[in-house]
């Protein structure tokens, strides 16, 4: 497909459900959102009940230091409360972190979430990309990265598991990366938005490294795993107290509302919901990967997030063709052609309820099996 043809077709992101409704004339309520990467179980019942019973909490300001929430986060992640900062979604913390680092030369591991580069562009520094290779199943070759890392890079951004590739580095590999970056004076931001969906969280989370590396900050939120994007609760973890102090000085006071702080404490302690989510995602992801392996015209990769990347290898079939075929059947997947550095025809879909996943696999099979 030519570049002009690609530019002419509409581009929809994972949350563009209203645009899909308008463009295709399909009621948004009937569309299954395979592009949003949100837990299909929806909001935890215990959180819903607790919030309804404590609405009066909004008549008071939240604790300015969010101590009980930060302790709940620390207990949930297995870290020190003093290392934790909360924010108005992970987006606010990413913005604050990037602004505070004010990097001369930032390196972004891609293809990945475009918001990193948008925020970096506002600081005026130089931005470079290190693109993951399809031949390596979109995993970083640390030796190659080290050999090609420019001397003036002072900030590195990594999403782990990565969106849209669903690839991930192990904790040991992340330790090697953090060590390399510390030796070169590089601060590392790891976005762990999808880490709770991994087959083994301990295998790939960088939380155990936090106390060892003061050049490292992890960003997480509750939008995806806890199905609460509207709550706007994010948190960051770093042992760099000086940096944390400067970040908090620039942060608006009470950036997280009382209800959001209260709900955060409840959801992080809801072990039943957490267990049911992981059981569902791990089981359904395995089923979907196994089914897709039999499709002649689809290539799949190891998936650590709650989503799967597919490369379309059928001549004459584009990512937009597959996207449109699915959306006309009421299922919105992600056409990945807008991801910089992802050369070829790719689509991404997240794991939903079993009956919905079966429908989507049948739909994809009509073009790719």
Indicate the structural class.
Answer: alpha/beta
List the helices and strands in order: HHEHHEHEHEHEHEHEEHHHEEHEEEH
Tally the beta strands.
Answer: 13
State Rg. 21 Å
**Main beta sheet strand tally, sense and closure:** 7 strands, mixed
Q: Uncertain runs with pLDDT below 50, 5 residues or more?
A: 1-7
Strand content: 15-25%
General shape: globular
* DSSP helical segment count: 14
Helix share of residues?
A: 25-40%
Q: How far apart lie the N and C ends?
A: 22 Å
Arrangement of strands in the largest sheet: 2-8-7-6-5-3-4
Q: What's the average pLDDT?
A: 95
Describe the structure.
This protein has helices at residues 3-8, 17-24, 45-53, 67-77, 89-101, 115-121, 142-148, 171-183, 201-204, 241-250, 258-268, 271-293, 319-327, 354-368, and strands spanning 32-33, 84-88, 105-110, 126-131, 155-159, 187-191, 216-221, 233-237, 298-300, 307-312, 331-332, 334-335, 346-350. It is α/β, with parallel strands linked by helices. Helix 4 (67-77) runs parallel beside helix 11 (258-268) and helix 5 (89-101) runs parallel beside helix 6 (115-121). Residues 1-7 have low confidence and may be disordered.
Question: Which short descriptors sum up this protein?
Answer:
16% strand, 4-stranded antiparallel sheet, alpha/beta, 13 strands, globular, 369 residues, 7-stranded mixed sheet, single chain
